[in-house]
Amino acid sequence: MANKKIGMWMYNNGGGGAIERKIIDQLKEREIEVETNLNLRFAKGSKDGIICNNVNMLELDLFFSYNAGEQTNTQKYMYETINKYVTTVNSYQSFALSEDKFRSNIALNKAGIKTTDFFLCHRESPEYLVEKFKEWKKLIFKQIDGWGGNGMILLESCQSLDSLLPFLNQTGIRHIYLEKFIDNDFSDYRIDIVDGEYISCYGRKASPRDWRTNISSGGSIILREANDEIIDIAKRATKILGLDIAGVDIVYDREKEQYVVLEVNGIPAFATPEQEKIGLTFNDKKIKKIVNLIDFKIK
């Protein structure tokens, strides 16, 4: 019987290349071939299939897409198309849902998972933004599909509100998406889940100059332990969005005295070599679980 063959698109910064090699080595031990560097941004489609880096994506047994920083509209379009004919991890549907803050928050709330209060309206109705500012007093503007803290603006004064409206008029952003600011200690929990299993927990803490915990916004990694409540919330949130792999960001709301899901990330990074040195040692466990997941899905 011919060996199974999968395709992979893995990020390479922050030690991603070394993680990719470990995944490939463990898959090869199970007689699973791996085609790499399948960036769908450069794919070509025709009646013969979808060709990327000389690989027909529609002839693969599975496609493992794990690169958050280089997503493009073309890449997402091809990803969605491939998912109709080939098993993908994560599935395109769950990936797209996790990327959409408004839709994912609705799904979580409908299932009883607590999130921050959120609001969406069309950019041509800025009066709704003003009404929410008066109600919440302190709120955050986000792009629906933004990541890494990019495009997030804290609105806590009339001046900040006035500066947002001209910004919206100069961009192609169609919606105004807002979240009520959560009274927290400017740190969060990142819970990694793979195939329904708890992998790890660590935290991120905002720098003294910013309120965002994202590493790309100046936040730093901190070691912290997860309790049973946080792990249960993360597992439930992952399942609700249909993700095989997820990183669930949780903060403690000091006003309401409860844990709140901020975001569910479908492509949570592995620990970098620098982070491993300070005690984040979950990479091998996560790699093994992902390899088991891929092996199971192609069978």
Structure, explained:
With 299 residues, the chain is α+β, with helices and mostly antiparallel strands. The protein folds into 3 domains: 95 residues, Rossmann fold, CATH 3.40.50.20; 63 residues, Dna Ligase, domain 1 (2-Layer Sandwich); 84 residues, 2-Layer Sandwich (D-amino Acid Aminotransferase, Chain A, domain 1), CATH 3.30.470.20. 33% of the residues lie in helices and 28% in strands. It contains 9 helices and 16 strands. The strands form 4 sheets. Strands 14-13-12-15-16 form a 5-stranded antiparallel beta sheet. Strands 2-1-6-7 form a 4-stranded parallel beta sheet, covered by helices on one side. β6, α2 and β7 form a beta-alpha-beta unit. α1 packs across α9. The radius of gyration is 20 Å and the shape is globular. The model has no long low-confidence stretch (mean pLDDT 92).
Descriptive labels:
Rossmann fold, 33% helix, 3 domains, four-stranded parallel beta sheet, 299 residues, D-amino Acid Aminotransferase, Chain A, domain 1, 9 helices, five-stranded antiparallel beta sheet, alpha+beta, Dna Ligase, domain 1, globular
